[in-house]
Amino acid sequence: MKHTLIPQENIRIAPYTSMRVGGAVRYLYRPETEDQLVELVAGCKAENTPYLVIGNASNLLFPDEGYNGVVIATGGIRSITFENGLITASCGVSLSALSVFAMEHGKKGLAFAFGIPGTVGGGVYMNAGAYGGELSDCLEYAVCIDAKGEKVTLSGEDLRLSYRHSRLQEEELLLLSATFRCEDGDPKEIKGEMDKNMAARKEKQPLEYPSCGSAFKRPTGYYAGALIQEAGLKGFSMGGAQVSEKHAGFVINKGGATADDVKALLAHVQKTVYDQSGVLLEPEIQIL
Predict the structure, then answer these.
(1) Does the annotation mark 32 as catalytic?
(2) Mind listing the domains of the chain with CATH numbers?
């Protein structure tokens, strides 16, 4: 490859993921610019090397057997600018940092993102949301690399954003940056909303344990956590993985969990809830 980045080799991925599970990956690269990311992807394609681009791996479950290819972690690509009333953030900018930046510039509409552990790249990929807001509410356009390695600019409409879904999940498109148009607001009021949301997170969510956040998508007309609790699964464990006693919508790593533990628990929850309520829960966690 033409770049000068030195990878970490045969490194255990678990410490770099929110769930703290997963085996060794062959090569781990940490680019710090969008250009380095583009070069890495182009190099992998030219050499037919399997590769995976991740943000904070806050919603990803790596297998216990690891990944025999290149993993590119974008968390070091953190450019964020404010120009002509628009906020442009690189893929590796954390959603919390995006939220704070918007508040500091008197822009409302992204307070919901404060406390979401993902990055802008992963956030747009999943159309991340919380507390009644989603990135699609403010997303103006995104710059991506397409399958040919060429840069394309896609509007929010082009990205086909819906609940926990985007076109990035369907096609070979890699997000480099996203630009947001937000309404003007009072920084003090926005900060108050952010603080209120964070207090609610701390009160209701098991933030003291490794997890991938909400384990299942919200089924139409129901709440996943309520269905799981009604099925008597709150606190249920398989190996080191447990349905949180604090919030049944979360699967946590209680200590020493493996990816297989988490997958087995997710499957057990799905089956039990379906048998009891007829609702098939769809994992929100991306399982590799």
Answers:
(1) no
(2) 8-73 (3.30.43.10), 80-189 (3.30.465.10), 206-287 (3.90.78.10)
